[in-house]
């Protein structure tokens, strides 16, 4: 069907009597009839990615009305959260037919999209025809086939092993941005070495999730994994937890003594979260342990040697703590053999759609609901600065799924998120108010756009006009 329509459009370009396609990109009656008669969804776009035609089948599949798309650019629809990736842009870049799976974000459907570029006589792309097939029924049929009892019995052990491996990977571990892909590259490179690892980043960026994932893919995955929050345990108790103690070491000690985390984690990994909260005395003991991987229990006289990999994390500026003599410089160099910095969510906004989509699906499945965010809600979520990072986003999505049914519109979002991107005008003068609105509006949109051309297209103004306004309002940003 796609090839037939694409060929039809190609013929229209070659025969002036058959179809008139001028600079406003009008589509012929014959093409309208073919497109609207199709069972599958069809979208026709011009060479700039502007939507010219959307058939009724597409609306039935996605729930998006033609008037919501026609006249908009595919990049705008992507930014508004209509879908998770633009196959049209891929086809334009590669100049060939591209077929990919695509998620329709606001109704949760998965569709198969094939995009065929149409070339003019100069072999330049003139427009593109997208063919969309709903995979919901097909996926449901495949799931039913997979429930074959004999097949389950035959591969029970293999399925269990696969399930165990998946359980080891955090459900909310997403890496899509350039920064996180670099982090993942480092992680893969160091997964099987014994060197100490220091993970830095704000609270809520996913440090513990990263370490849990590292353990699950490392050569130590079959050995113990312990997590110790150094800021949540009193100093006296933390020392005995880490190093263990001999009988009679202190009042209340078990008569048999007790092995510590380092001893129990032999051949495994110990994750010391909030390591900068360690007291000076414990910093010294940890440094000694890291130097030769042996220690003595509290109240003991015998050295115990273990094979343990130490991974530490902090949400503080460790160099400032060193300058203030609050953290030992020699310990810092011991734990900072391999440093990894996880950027805050506000600096990797290109992961927002994937994260929201992931959390939405997870909590819909968990609570057996079908609740989704509207495109304008996506806009609000994308614009917000997320001081609590991924943890805050996850909590917001879970709360929204629990408290709502169907589509979640901006009025159902928390006020601080809903109003974050709203310009604040502090003048009664109309001319000054318009200027202030323009300044704030352009500044806010700069956080979502990668180039001056994209921004001018989104705002519907000429590049020269936009550049002049940015100079007038002293808006400086490299685009």
TrEMBL record:
Alphabetized UniProt keyword annotations: Aromatic hydrocarbons catabolism, ATP-binding, Coiled coil, DNA-binding, Nucleotide-binding, Transcription, Transcription regulation
Pfam families: AAA_lid_14, HTH_50, PAS_9, Sigma54_activat
Cell cycle keyword on record: no
SUPFAM superfamilies (alphabetical): Homeodomain-like, P-loop containing nucleoside triphosphate hydrolases, PYP-like sensor domain (PAS domain)
Coiled coil: 128-165
Record Gene3D superfamilies: 1.10.8.60, Homeodomain-like (1.10.10.60), P-loop containing nucleotide triphosphate hydrolases (3.40.50.300), PAS domain (3.30.450.20)
Location of the PAS domain: 27-79
Name of the featured protein: HTH-type transcriptional regulatory protein TyrR
Species assigned in the record: Ammoniphilus resinae
């Amino acid at each position: 069907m796609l090839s037939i329509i694409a060929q039809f459009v190609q013929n229209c370009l070659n025969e002036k009597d058959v179809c008139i396609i001028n600079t406003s990109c009008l589509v012929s009656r014959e093409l309208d009839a073919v497109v609207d008669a199709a069972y599958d969804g069809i979208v026709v776009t011009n060479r700039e990615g502007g939507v010219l035609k959307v058939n009724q089948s597409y609306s039935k599949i996605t729930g998006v009305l033609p008037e919501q798309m026609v006249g908009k650019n595919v990049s705008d629809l992507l930014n508004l959260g209509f879908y998770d990736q633009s196959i049209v842009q891929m086809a334009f870049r590669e100049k060939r037919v591209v077929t990919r799976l695509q998620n329709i974000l606001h109704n949760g459907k998965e569709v198969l999209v094939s995009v065929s570029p149409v070339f003019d006589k100069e072999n330049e792309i003139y427009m593109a025809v997208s063919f969309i097939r709903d995979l919901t029924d097909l996926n449901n049929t495949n799931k039913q086939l997979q429930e074959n009892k004999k097949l389950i019995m035959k591969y029970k052990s293999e399925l269990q092993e696969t399930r165990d491996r998946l359980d080891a990977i955090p459900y909310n571990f997403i890496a899509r941005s350039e920064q996180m892909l670099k982090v993942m590259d480092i992680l893969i490179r160091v997964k099987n070495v014994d060197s100490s690892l220091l993970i830095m980043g704000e609270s809520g960026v996913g440090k513990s999730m990263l370490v849990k994932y590292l353990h699950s893919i490392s050569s130590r995955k079959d050995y113990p994994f312990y997590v110790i929050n150094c800021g949540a345990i009193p100093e006296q108790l933390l020392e005995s937890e880490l190093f263990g103690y001999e009988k009679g070491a202190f009042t209340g000690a078990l008569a048999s003594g007790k092995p510590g985390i380092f001893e129990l984690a032999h051949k495994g990994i110990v994750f010391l979260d909030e390591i900068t909260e360690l007291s000076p005395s414990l910093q010294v003991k940890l440094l000694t342990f890291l130097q030769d991987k042996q220690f003595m229990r509290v109240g003991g006289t015998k050295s115990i040697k273990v094979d343990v990999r130490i991974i530490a994390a902090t949400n503080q500026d460790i160099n400032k703590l060193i300058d203030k003599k609050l953290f030992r410089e020699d310990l810092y160099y011991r734990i900072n053999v391999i440093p990894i910095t996880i950027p805050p969510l506000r600096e990797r906004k290109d992961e927002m759609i994937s994260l929201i989509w992931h959390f939405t699906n997870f909590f819909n499945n968990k609570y057996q609901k079908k609740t989704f965010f509207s495109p304008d809600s996506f806009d609000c979520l994308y614009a917000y600065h997320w001081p609590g990072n991924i943890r805050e986003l996850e909590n917001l999505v879970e709360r929204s799924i629990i408290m709502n049914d169907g589509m979640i519109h901006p009025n159902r979002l928390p006020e601080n998120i809903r109003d974050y991107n709203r310009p604040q005008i502090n003048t009664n003068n109309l001319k000054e108010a318009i200027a202030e609105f323009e300044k704030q509006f352009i500044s806010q949109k700069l956080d979502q756009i990668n180039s001056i051309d994209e921004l001018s297209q989104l705002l519907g103004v000429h590049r020269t006009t936009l550049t002049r306004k940015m100079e007038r309002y002293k808006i400086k940003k490299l685009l």
